[in-house]
Design brief:
Largest sheet: 2 strands, antiparallel
Distance between the termini: 46 Å
Strand order of the largest sheet: 1-2
Radius of gyration: 34 Å
Number of helices: 7
CATH topology of the largest domain: Arc Repressor Mutant, subunit A
Shape: rod-shaped
CATH architecture of the largest domain: Orthogonal Bundle
CATH class of the largest domain: Mainly Alpha
Structural class: mainly alpha
Number of strands: 2
Helix content: 55-70%
Strand content: under 5%
Number of domains: 2
């Protein structure tokens, strides 16, 4: 049970300095099992006496209500912090997946809670895709690709020159072969890089994409 669901403002307290467990549960308007759970949940729960070796519990109601008031405040702050993080998450995913143009006949504003739920779903989908090895960063792949092609180009240039010497090709023929290879390589690289460009028309320029 959340503290936000429980009355923790002090009612009219009994004149006795301490009360037993049943009376405290009655003052808090909760069940005895709930109070027991709270005692287990918070080792620092204010207990005036007892609770061990068969000695009945005794509680100072004022101390208990003060303690629960502090816990409720902490709980509210944590909830607000979670909401703030979810809103940040929503905004980050809105940047990756901008909302499509809405139908003029439909409401244009999605409730915040639904937007947060959608953002959490997208986050889960991305994590699952990443774990499955299907989520890649286009810029990282592009850098790796360019590096690999550069090394291949150097190796192929060396190979062509060595082949020309072994076959007795004249220098003009070697240079022609190198030029033709460079042209073929340039066309292939340009086509590959185009395939790595983000689909800005579909995902607003997102750098993350799913591998096919």
């Amino acid at each position: 049970m959340l503290l936000s669901e429980v009355r923790v403002d002090q009612p009219e307290l009994p004149s006795a300095p301490t009360v037993n467990k049943r009376k405290l549960a009655s003052l808090l308007r909760i069940s005895l099992p709930t109070l027991t759970n709270w005692l287990d949940r918070w080792p620092e729960f204010p207990v005036a006496a007892g609770g061990r070796n068969g000695v009945p519990y005794a509680f100072d109601p004022a101390a208990v209500f003060s303690f629960l008031g502090e816990r409720r405040k902490e709980e509210a702050e944590q909830e607000a912090s979670r909401d703030e993080e979810l809103i940040k998450l929503q905004l980050s995913f809105d940047a990756l997946w901008p909302a499509a143009e809405s139908d003029p006949g439909m409401p244009s504003r999605i409730p915040v809670k639904e937007q947060i739920d959608l953002a959490r779903l997208r986050d889960l989908q991305m994590k699952q895709a990443e774990r499955a090895g299907k989520l890649v960063n286009a810029e990282e792949v592009q850098d790796l690709f360019i590096g690999a092609v550069s090394r291949l180009s150097r190796d192929m240039g060396t190979f062509l020159r060595q082949l020309g010497r072994d076959q007795g090709w004249p220098d003009p023929m070697v240079r022609q072969a190198e030029a033709r290879f460079a042209d073929m390589q340039r066309q292939a690289v340009e086509g590959a890089l185009r395939s790595l460009e983000p689909d800005t028309a579909d995902d607003g320029g997102a750098q993350l994409r799913l591998a096919g």
